[in-house]
Write a sequence for this structure.
C-alpha cells in the first residue's frame, strides 16, 4: 500500500515539476527583460 502511495506521489511530483519548468522559464524571461530595462535606464 505504501509503495503505491509513494509511486502516485512521485508521478504527481514529476508532473508538477514539468509544469513548473514552463513557469520558471517565463519568470526568467521576465527577470531578464527587467534587467535589460534597468541597464538601458542607467546609461
Amino acid at each position: 500500500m505504501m509503495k503505491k502511495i509513494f509511486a502516485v506521489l512521485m508521478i504527481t511530483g514529476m508532473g508538477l515539476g514539468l509544469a513548473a519548468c514552463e513557469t520558471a522559464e517565463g519568470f526568467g524571461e521576465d527577470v531578464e527583460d527587467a534587467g535589460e530595462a534597468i541597464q538601458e535606464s542607467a546609461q
